[in-house]
Amino acid sequence: MPDEFKVPKFKNESEEAQWWDSQGKNLTQAFQRAAAQGHLGHGTAKRKGATPTTTIRLEQEDIARARVQAERKGLRYQTYLKMLLRETLLKEEKKMAGRAARAAKAHA
């Protein structure tokens, strides 16, 4: 893959979606060049560290809220829920680490 298509690290999925959206014309041209040169292969794309599927039951009202909020951000609601869950888990992890550090300092 040419350097201009090296995928950068993103702060969140919305930022990633915006980057891919901005690359459309460049990716199309690169694909057409590769096809003309006979460099296209067969197969499916692989994601490094593909995530397992998890099923959870949600209230209809929460799904409706997620759909509205996701639409405003230009995301699918499942993607938006995943993003919210990850952000919340990371925030809670930091909060717990801070508490543990304060407790260790108090006992020192």
Question: Could you explain how this protein is built, in words?
Answer:
The protein has one domain (12-35, 55-107). The longest helix has 31 residues, at 77-107. The chain is extended and about 70 Å long. The protein has 108 residues and is mostly helical. The protein has four helices and no strands.
Which descriptors would you attach to this protein?
108 residues, mainly alpha, 63% helix
Radius of gyration: 20 Å
Mean pLDDT: 83
Return the domain count.
1
Count of β-strands: 0
Structural class: mainly alpha
Low-confidence stretches: none
For the biggest sheet, the summary is: none
Order of helices and strands: HHHH
Coarse morphology: extended
Strand content: under 5%
Number of helices: 4
Span between termini: 53 Å
Helix content: 55-70%
Present the secondary structure layout.
Layout (H helix, E strand, L loop, with lengths): L12 H10 L1 H13 L23 H14 L3 H31 L1
Helix pairs in contact: 3-4
